[in-house]
Amino acid sequence: MISIRTKLSLWLTALVIISTAIGIGFFETMLRQAFHDSIIARLQEDLEQVLLATQFQDDTLTIDQTQLSGFYKPVFSGRYYQLNMAGQEVRSRSLWDQKLDIKMLEKGESRVWQTKGPQNHDIQLLSLGLGSNSLDVVATLTVAQDLSIGRKIFTQIYGTKLGVNLAMLLAMITGIFLVLRQSFKPVHQIQQVLSKLREGEITSLEVNNIPPELRPLATTYNELLVYSSKQIERSRNNIGNLSHGLKTPLAVMQQQVEALGLKDPEAAIAMQKQLDLVHKMIERKLASARITGDMLPAAQMQLPKDLQDLCNTLSKVHFSKALQCNISIPETIPRLPLHREDGMELIGNLLDNAHKWASSRVDVTAMTHGEAITLIIEDDGPGVETEELELLTNRGKRMDEATMGHGLGLSIVKDIAEQYEIELTFSHSDLGGLKISLAF
Question: Could you tell me the pTM of the whole model?
Fold first, then answer.
């Protein structure tokens, strides 16, 4: 779907282009009309001037050259006149040896038109029919003006105006994109703030730094965060209360099973299995509830600081071994994309398992493949047989009953990994022990 910014840019650009095109067209029409009107007005003045210079001598009409403007004297000057009578023509010197093709008009009749004139230039003509009943004279007086010079000026003016309009159009389009870019900058800032919120760097949106148009959305989002946190916390408390409430009935049932074992051992064993299933189910649901709790907002696990804290803690737990924990994390991986509490339990269980079985060394490394992050934990312990690798995440499964532990650590690891869609794999380490890979 096209973005709002792109849609606004296209619509505003189209609107500006259409408006500019209409303005240019309207300006051209007005300029042409003004040019035409000015030519006609000039011809009317010329016609009146030539009429004043027209005299009647010897039963014919003549034009006194001394009363006319000097524009009519140079050859092809662009200003012409011609007087047509029956069998006689009087032309301006500027026409030289050419004459205008004139249509005779009745007295008082006028005509405005354009045609080709001297040097094959377009000319504008104005004709007026003259006559006198007493003198029995019929004539047509025509004045003309060359349009080439005026059109050249018109082209220069229109070209300048067109260039200015195009420059303004380009400036407005650029301004539209710059204004929209600046206007949508707060949206990108909110996107960055939401990314920080997702990564746990902040706990809510700062409403005062958000534009008024987006402030109600940010306020509603903050309210939703608070509501979600309360709902999740309420769910966790309910599950915790349920688990604690079941402990007493289960303890009573456990005592009854032990008493039943003296009378009916087989029935006691069957009941004990069911009680163990209930215990494991409660632990599983409690772990799942803790995983989904406090997800929004979330503080992500920091690298390598949190890993170092885990190793320091586990080195004190397994002080008798004097293990060396080597952490190699690139600076390009500052955090892991999961809740810090979940990460501490997930990786804490894995590191605890590695410390439990290692002889002298535990290595923790991380690498990136595009956008994916892979965390590897390996030890130099005895390792696990190939056919037993797939059994490591089975709840309660123990590879060695002699080692302390209840067998739930790796299965809880699997639950957390599934919750965050982390790919969890077990393999043989080059150090000789177990290699655990977490692909985020």
Answer: 0.51
